[in-house]
Amino acid sequence: MTTIRQRRVGKGTEAAEDQPSEETNVKPDGKIPPDPPGGRLWNILSITIGGIVAISLGLVTSVYVATLHENDLWFSNIKEVEREISFRTECGLYYSYYKQMIEAASIQQGLHGLVYDNKTESVRTINILERMNVYQEVFLSILYRILPIQQYLEPVYFYIYTLFGLQAVYVIALYVTSWLLSGTWLSGLLAACWYITNRVDTTRVEFTIPLRENWALPFFAVQIAAITYLLRAHLQPAQERLTLMAVFIATFLFSLTWQFNQFMMLIQALALFILDCLDMLPTAKVTWLYIIQISGLLLVCVLQFFNSMILGSLVISFNVSVLIARTIQKNLKKGGLLNRLGKLILHILLVLCLTLLINKFIKKILNLESDEHIFKFLKAKFGFGATRDFDANLYLCEEAFGLLPLNTFSRLSSTLLFYVYGFVLFLLTVAAVIVAFRNLSGSNRVQLKEKMEEYTVTLKPDAAYSLVHTVLFGCLALSTMRMKYLWTSHMCVFASFGLCSTEVWKLMLKCLHLYTSHRTQVIKYSIPMITLLYISFKFWPGIMDELSELREFYDPDTVELMNWIKSNTPSTAVFAGSMQLLAGVKLCTGRTLTNHPHYEDKNLRERTKQIYQIYAKRSPGDVYGILRSFGTDYVILEDSICYERRHSRGCRLRDLLDVANGHIMDGLGENEPDLKPSSYPRFCEEIKKNLPSYTMHFTRVFQNKTFHVYKLAKHK
After folding, report:
1. Burial of 214 (0-12, 13-18, 19+ CB in 10 A)
2. pTM greater than the 0.90 cutoff
3. 314 with 362: CB under 8 angstroms?
4. Start-end ranges of CATH 3.40.50 in the chain?
5. Could you give the 3-state DSSP secondary structure of residue 693?
6. What is the architecture, at CATH level 2, of domain 556-712?
7. What are 255-309's pLDDT values in tens digits?
8. Ramachandran sector of residue 123 (left: φ over 0; alpha: ψ -120 to 50; beta: rest)
């Protein structure tokens, strides 16, 4: 069991920031008059100061999380095997491919080893570049090999510093998005400060460094910043082309680095679809964004050797369906309210039917079943029938895939973030409803322009996108805790934008009949500055205390196991065990595995369920036969799984296996009526008694307080 213990002392080692409004100073021909010389100079000064602040905050965040990581593990002082063990579960698996590329005799041999890999899954040769999103490890390993830094920087530090450096990109992107939305870099400063002070809920990079989301989310934030700029009015053609290129590059990099990219982009496509239907975004720009999503995913598909899971993704089917439906219904945005509502309902139904048909057709042609476990999980999670499916229940019983805990909101409220977010969300939702109704009622565009001054409520396209984006990703986070990092980071942007937005305060003051231009400006700057002062005074001492707390990595049992494997087993030995542990075995020892934590493959899921019979009620002969069918030489049993207490009855791994096998569960409590007692005791418990029926197949060769390793006999 990995723990963090207290470290023993040992030998050691503002200027004005407003940007020109999008709705003002526009000539009748649509051109924007040039700024006076003084105004242009002021803007340049403001942008320069804002940019310096953005870069500074990004670097501070990067150093902050790097220091926390060092202080928590004493990473610079622990052994190489301990450093590798600290990359837990799937993190260790991903890092192992970086290590494999670094240690290869040449870059070509390293790539060949990934394309024709026979050590990740025994008795199978798989293409790692097709199955997993590890191009970032490949790129980083090549960069490390060709740069003259080997004498000054260890490979592991080059890797983790790159990830911590991406946090700087992440914070800068959030800062810029908020700045673009509000028109003042004070908003970006507030967003960055909220991101840092709510670190527990906005990132987990300091303890899950190689996790795919830590690579992907910075690029997703850059993409959102580019989309926010794209949706501004009066862009020059060259500006629009450059922005579209930035959106494409960010979308491509995001898709390349995370296997869940398709689900995030589906939610983003839904946001664009909703806003386009309500006539709140320019249709031409929305079309470009659909095309960029499709082309970005197809390019990733090619790089991943035509990964069928990407081709069968819902987002590609949905985007194609929307584009087809548009060509069929050309007069969608004409007519009165009832006429448009009728067309809209038909449009939604058409898109939905086309999406399902196209997706079903693609999956049928490709015989695609890689993502079926996700839909089984969603079906069970949202109450569409109970399931005994092992894979679905494995997800359902994990806290990370459960509902967002309520204490998250108390933490976010302590920094005032959630209160401000709720306030801004309410105001902009009301504004969006009013604007959507006005758009659907079919007001003449000329009359609309003439009456614009009469309207209290307006909503710019970039603000409308940000609103729907935060609502949809908020729903995702509420339903699945692991996805909260997509929501909370944007929450910082959205709340800071609202607090610094002229439009938000203008709307509120007009509703209260207190509006004056001067009062709006005073509130727009004073409230954010007071909030920043409050955050600084309340949380600065806690951050300093956190940075001064020194601990060290401590997991002697796992270290002992890894050292024993390296010293006492052949390099070709095949190991079976839990997915999480085997990822560490591959990284630390280079031995061949039977299964691993990258779960997006049907054959691997079935294999894992079979391997996990070591924790079920099965006969020694059955377990031996299963393990040998996968070429297993050694099996590792963990007491923490065999005698698990972390989960309640019904969610322990042994319970999931019992139910899937049709056996009643251990302990007091109800069982489903058709479950029956097993004819055999639990394998992981009974094998320790050294009974003849077990010793004829298994010989214990290693044991400590946590792990038991058995060597399989090789019967003729």
Report:
1. buried
2. yes
3. no
4. 556-712
5. helix
6. 3-Layer(aba) Sandwich (3.40)
7. 999 999 999 999 999 999 999 999 999 999 999 999 999 999 999 999 999 998 9
8. left
